Amino acid sequence: MVAASPGGADPERRQRGPVRALGLMVLRGAYDLAWFTLIALGSPWWLWRSAGSRSFRRMVTERLCLRLPRLSPPPPGGRVLIHGVSVGEVKASQSLVAALRPHHDVVVSASTDSGLLVARELYPDLTVVRFPLDFRPVVARFLRCLQPTAIVLLELEIWPLFVRSAGRRGIPTAIVSGRITPASFANYRRFGPTLTQFSAVRLFAAQTETYAERFRALGAPEGRIEITGNVKVDGLDAAAREPDARTRALAQELGLDGARPVLVAGSTHGPEEVLVAGAFRAAAPGARIVLVPRHPPRVPEVVAALRAEGLEPQLLTDLRSGEALDPNRPTVVDTIGELERLYSLATLAFVGGTLIDHGGQNVLEPAARGLAVLHGPDVANFRQEAALLEQAGASQVVRDAAQLEAVTRELLGDPQRMEAMGTAGRGAVEGQRGATERTVGALYRHGLLRRP
Fold first, then answer.
1. What does pTM read for this prediction?
2. CA-based, 20 to 30 A from 155: which of 78, 176, 322, 439?
């Protein structure tokens, strides 16, 4: 057995340096070859799909950076690319974008159609682009056209070649509001440091010590890890205020006049819509039920499942097109970006992805609006957030539809308890604020941002 050196390095491992370097070259070459093969073999199918679908054609051209704007050189304050995979991460970026814009040029990117849609709605005066495929010529064009001086990745979005290419161009990368779910942690450990490229990341601004420890276990250097909190909390609209014009319009479209309780199920996954709608209807036959599937493309499936259970739904888009409202029928929201406004109009909220083996969705959004929060037992992806609300007495776990029905009936019959839970939830969220300021400070300290 060879003893480890005082610094923890294995002498034999150091002696294998050239061998390891060769292994890295082979693995990286294999990674590049895999992308080339995927593109080459997939091209006929992509062309066929593109011919029949304008949206798919747009997605392909954007991922290949064929529709990318060429920006002028960065201003003296630098240009920061802020990337969020989809809707959740894009919305989480709001407070960070607001903090950086006065002194830095900001470009926002997303990977999904829904993420891009929300980004363009939130940032109509910023450059918003699709994140590229992790293929060398595509990434090179992306970086050449946008010319970022720093890259900020929300939560955890490591594409090995992208991070490596940025580093070779002297563009530092940070992960902010960093989090690693248990499932992601296990997957990253399978690949090890070779493809994760954690050594090429300048800063890991983690939400909690638990996530920071996972970054350490995956090889992130200790000096690059800081615990700064969750920037999404700073972007949540927790203030009690009069609804804005769009929220008032939404209330009118849904017939929410205050005469009936409004039960909102947000970010649901199949078959939760059927389970929750049935439980809500049994607990409060006169309530307005609003279902917001996490993925709008599932809406036809949701409608069919509800009809099979004798629940004839109405779609929000149909109501907006003039269909007569029937408040006794559940409404299915088939658009993007409505959930936060619906939470501000709700009496009680259920957060989806928790009655099934999925890991849950963000429970802080309804809590920030002063709602009592119900969710199922599976909150693996949001364990810290769920624990925060539970400790504050702001939420309640329901094991199944039967318990959801019982708890809903109980809370609607006890408005004072519901109000106390909502107040506790808003207070718990308020207590978590400040992550944006800490994150921006860390970005300056680690040299990603230029001092104004």
1. 0.85
2. 78
Quote the CA–CA distance of 193 and 390 in Å, as a whole number.
Answer: 36
Query: Residue 218: how many CA atoms within 13 Å on its side-chain side?
Result: 32
- Burial label, 420 (beta-carbon count in 10 A; 0-12, 13-18, 19+): middle
Residue 268 backbone dihedrals phi, psi, to 5 degrees: -80, 155
Residue 248: C-alpha distances to residues 196, 262, 325, 434 (Å): 46, 15, 16, 30
Residue 11's contacts (CB-CB under 8 Å, 6 or more residues apart) are 2, 5
Alpha-carbon distance 211 to 207, whole Å?
A: 7
pLDDT above 70 as % of the chain: 91
Q: What structural domains does the chain harbor?
A: 74-229+434-445 (3.40.50.2000), 245-430 (3.40.50.2000)
- Torsional class of 167: left (φ above 0), alpha (ψ -120 to 50), beta (otherwise): alpha
pLDDT in tens, 183-241: 888 888 887 655 667 888 999 999 999 999 999 998 899 999 999 999 999 988 655 45
CA distance 160 to 28: 9
Cα–Cα distance, 214 to 218 (Å, whole number): 6
Q: Which two tokens stand for residue 300?
A: 């036809």
On whether the CB atoms of residues 349 and 373 are closer than 8 A, the answer is yes
Which of these, 362, 417, 410, lies nearest to 394 by C-alpha position?
417
DSSP state of 380: G
Q: Is the CB of residue 407 less than 8 Å from the CB of residue 399? A: no
Can you tell me whether residue 265 is helix, strand or coil? strand
Contacts of 372 (CB under 8 A, 6+ apart): 348, 349, 394, 395, 396, 411, 417, 418, 421, 422, 425
Confidence grade of residue 19 (pLDDT, cut at 50, 70, 90): low
Give the pLDDT confidence of 260-296 residue by residue, as tens digits.
Answer: 999 999 999 999 999 999 999 999 999 999 999 999 9
**C-alpha dist (Å) from residue 340 to 8, 265, 345, 346, 368:** 49, 12, 9, 10, 10
